Structures are given as C-alpha cells and as structure tokens.
C-alpha cells in the first residue's frame, strides 16, 4: 500500500491515518468539516489535499448511519482500488450498499476493537490499535464475494496498525459487539445517571468500584446514539436478558427485607437468588481473555501506599524491577481529599512475597 484516503477524521479515522503515515503511506484526509481534516493534517496524519487519482485504499471512518452513502459516493467517483469502513456495526451498512447497487466485491466491512472516551482528531494516537482485535467481515463465494485484492489491502492495513485480524460474519459481529461493547456502554451510563442527583455526601464516598463501572459513561452521547441506532435489535436482546436478571435480583433483595419467622423460606430463596447471579457473574468474568489474549490467570495483588508526587510511580516500578518481578497489571485507587493513594501491583502468585519484602526493605508502606 502506497496511498490511502481516510474519509472522516475523528478519533478512529485520524488514528488510522497517523499509523499509516508513520509507516510511509501517503495519506489523504477528507471530512465534511474541512477544519477537522486540517487539524488531523497538522497532527501529521497526512494531507488534506485531494489525491491526483485513485488511491490504493479508501478508509471510511464515519458514523454507521452515513457509511453506505459515503461509500457509494466514493465508489461512484472512483476514488480507490479498494474500500473498507471502520464502523462499529457491519450488517446494516452492507445491506444498504447492496440496496444501492454498489459493487460489494471492492468493499470490506471492518471494525477495529479500540477506542477512547474522548473523540475527535486531537484524541487520536498512532498506537491506538496495537495488539487490539480488528474484525474483518468478508463475503465468501465467487459471485459477489470480496475481491482478494481488497482483502489483502485490509490485512495490510491491520498489519500496519499493528492490530490482530479476526474474521467474522457481519451479523455475528453485530450480535457480539452488542454483548461486549454496546450494552456495557448503556449499563455504565445507567449507573452513572444515578449519581446525577445523588446527595453530595454519597458522591464523596465514590471508590474504585464505581469509577470502574462508570468510566465509559464519559463517552460522547451523540456518537453512541449513532452506534446504537445502527444495532438496536441485538442490543435490545441483551438488555432484555439483563432486565430479567434485574427483576429476579430485585425480588430476591425484597425477600431479604423482612426478618419475620414466616418469611424464612422466602429469605432463603432470596439469598440463593443473589448468590446465583453473583456466581454466574464470576463464571462470565473468568471467560474474559487475560494478558496477551490468553486465558485468565490467577494473580495476586500487592497494594502499596503511594504519595502524589512526581517520580513516585517511576520509583516503585524501578524497585520492582530491581527485585526481579514483572508487573502484570497496575491500577491506582486515589484517596479522597488526600495527596496519596493505593497502587495495586498485579503479579504472579509466587512473586508476591518477594516483591512485598523488597518494597518494605526500600521503605514502601504495604497495605494488606
């Protein structure tokens, strides 16, 4: 791939352009807002000048509702040898393209499974996709199937962005992202919405749990309206199943409100119902891929009190390195109203005692 055209210079489009430009591809940028394309160009993502002729690959990075129309226009103008989109919904745009009579052999629907809570070109980064799954949804068969050249261009794009290609059926993809991406966004927003009018004393008690659950609730509502409008059925199916669990859990909790002797059987059923949903949650969480996409491993956490001063993170990582311990994961829980917090170092179980001793020896305060 020598040349590319990125249509849509938001977070994903600009990140694709930055990755390609950084690896020697001449990238042309286009956006319905010329100022946004100029911003992306100023960041080093390419040029906002129109290409002299057809480019090797056109990447359509617009909201799902606009994918088909944008692709159809690009194909009509003959802007590229191959075309793909990076929208988070795949089945609908393909059917719309077919209804418009477009040549589907020159098109491949894709979806990089990466993003941030922030949007726009200023949030873009060339390494956004590194190590992340990038779904490809080619159409098989000789008649109307995805052209091999287009598939190869898509695979080259994924490689240049240092992502991991995953081939799926378009509708299977939409059901999958409804479960692992779209529904979590709504649930996060629903929990965060409970905080809007909560008493200030309750909000001050927010800890790491509520921060984890509501992190993605900071996402752009307009962007998510576009996404959810393009995949309403599969998301509604998942939410209906969640709603059934919620109904059962509410009934179980209500049964625990009474301590009357005659309610003993109901209380036992309530406890069993709550335990059931929690255990099923454990089982589901255990299926989430761990480090490098492998099966989840059993790790231990070494919690260390850390001050909010420059250099503290570098110092604790250096001390862990001197102890010969590899940090598998890290998270920080900030203390409300204090210039300190807990840093949780996730390590292999056999490494935890040695790391604990080494950090204590170097003056760190370990918390159990």
Automatic annotation (TrEMBL):
<dbReference type="Pfam" id="PF02153">
    <property type="entry name" value="PDH_N"/>
</dbReference>
<keyword id="KW-0520">NAD</keyword>
<dbReference type="GO" id="GO:0006571">
    <property type="term" value="P:tyrosine biosynthetic process"/>
</dbReference>
<dbReference type="InterPro" id="IPR045865">
    <property type="entry name" value="ACT-like_dom_sf"/>
</dbReference>
<dbReference type="InterPro" id="IPR003099">
    <property type="entry name" value="Prephen_DH"/>
</dbReference>
<keyword id="KW-0827">Tyrosine biosynthesis</keyword>
<dbReference type="Pfam" id="PF20463">
    <property type="entry name" value="PDH_C"/>
</dbReference>
<feature type="domain" description="ACT">
    <location>
        <begin position="301"/>
        <end position="368"/>
    </location>
</feature>
<keyword id="KW-0028">Amino-acid biosynthesis</keyword>
<comment type="pathway">
    <text>Amino-acid biosynthesis; L-tyrosine biosynthesis; (4-hydroxyphenyl)pyruvate from prephenate (NAD(+) route): step 1/1.</text>
</comment>
<dbReference type="InterPro" id="IPR036291">
    <property type="entry name" value="NAD(P)-bd_dom_sf"/>
</dbReference>
<dbReference type="GO" id="GO:0008977">
    <property type="term" value="F:prephenate dehydrogenase (NAD+) activity"/>
</dbReference>
<dbReference type="InterPro" id="IPR002912">
    <property type="entry name" value="ACT_dom"/>
</dbReference>
<dbReference type="InterPro" id="IPR046826">
    <property type="entry name" value="PDH_N"/>
</dbReference>
<dbReference type="InterPro" id="IPR008927">
    <property type="entry name" value="6-PGluconate_DH-like_C_sf"/>
</dbReference>
<dbReference type="InterPro" id="IPR050812">
    <property type="entry name" value="Preph/Arog_dehydrog"/>
</dbReference>
<protein>
    <recommendedName>
        <fullName>Prephenate dehydrogenase</fullName>
        <ecNumber>1.3.1.12</ecNumber>
    </recommendedName>
</protein>
<comment type="similarity">
    <text>Belongs to the prephenate/arogenate dehydrogenase family.</text>
</comment>
<feature type="domain" description="Prephenate/arogenate dehydrogenase">
    <location>
        <begin position="2"/>
        <end position="284"/>
    </location>
</feature>
<dbReference type="InterPro" id="IPR046825">
    <property type="entry name" value="PDH_C"/>
</dbReference>
<keyword id="KW-0560">Oxidoreductase</keyword>
<keyword id="KW-0057">Aromatic amino acid biosynthesis</keyword>
<dbReference type="GO" id="GO:0004665">
    <property type="term" value="F:prephenate dehydrogenase (NADP+) activity"/>
</dbReference>
<dbReference type="GO" id="GO:0070403">
    <property type="term" value="F:NAD+ binding"/>
</dbReference>
């Amino acid at each position: 791939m020598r040349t590319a055209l990125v249509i849509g210079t938001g977070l994903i489009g600009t990140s694709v352009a930055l990755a390609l430009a950084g690896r020697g591809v001449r990238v042309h940028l286009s956006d319905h807002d010329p100022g946004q394309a100029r911003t992306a160009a100023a960041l080093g993502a390419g040029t906002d000048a129109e290409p002299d002729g057809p480019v090797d690959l056109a990447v359509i990075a617009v909201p799902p509702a606009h994918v088909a129309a944008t692709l159809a226009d690009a194909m009509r103008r003959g802007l590229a040898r191959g075309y793909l989109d990076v929208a988070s919904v795949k089945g609908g745009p393909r059917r719309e393209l077919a209804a418009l009579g477009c040549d589907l052999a020159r098109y491949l629907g894709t979806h990089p499974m990466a993003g941030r809570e922030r949007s726009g070109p200023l949030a873009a980064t060339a390494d956004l996709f590194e190590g992340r799954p990038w779904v490809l949804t080619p159409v098989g068969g000789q008649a109307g199937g995805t052209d091999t050249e287009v598939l190869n261009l898509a695979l080259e794009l994924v490689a240049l962005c240092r992502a991991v290609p995953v081939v799926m059926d378009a509708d299977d993809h939409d059901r999958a992202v409804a479960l692992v991406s779209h529904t979590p966004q709504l649930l996060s927003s629903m929990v965060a919405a409970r905080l809007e009018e909560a008493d200030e004393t309750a909000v001050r008690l927010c800890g790491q749990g509520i921060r984890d659950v509501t992190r993605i609730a900071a996402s752009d509502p307009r962007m998510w309206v576009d996404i959810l409008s393009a995949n309403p059925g599969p998301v509604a199916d998942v939410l209906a199943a969640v709603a059934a669990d919620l109904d059962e859990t509410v009934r179980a909790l209500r049964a625990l409100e009474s301590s009357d002797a005659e309610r003993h059987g109901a209380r036992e059923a309530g406890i069993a119902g709550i335990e059931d949903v929690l255990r099923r949650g454990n089982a589901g969480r255990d299926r989430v891929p761990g480090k490098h996409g492998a099966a989840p491993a059993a790790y231990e956490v070494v919690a260390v009190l850390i001050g909010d001063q420059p250099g503290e993170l570098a110092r604790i990582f250096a001390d862990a390195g001197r102890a010969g311990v590899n940090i598998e994961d890290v998270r920080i829980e900030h203390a409300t109203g204090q210039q300190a917090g807990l840093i949780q170092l996730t390590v292999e179980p056999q490494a935890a005692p040695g790391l604990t001793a080494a950090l204590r020896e170097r003056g760190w305060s370990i918390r159990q």
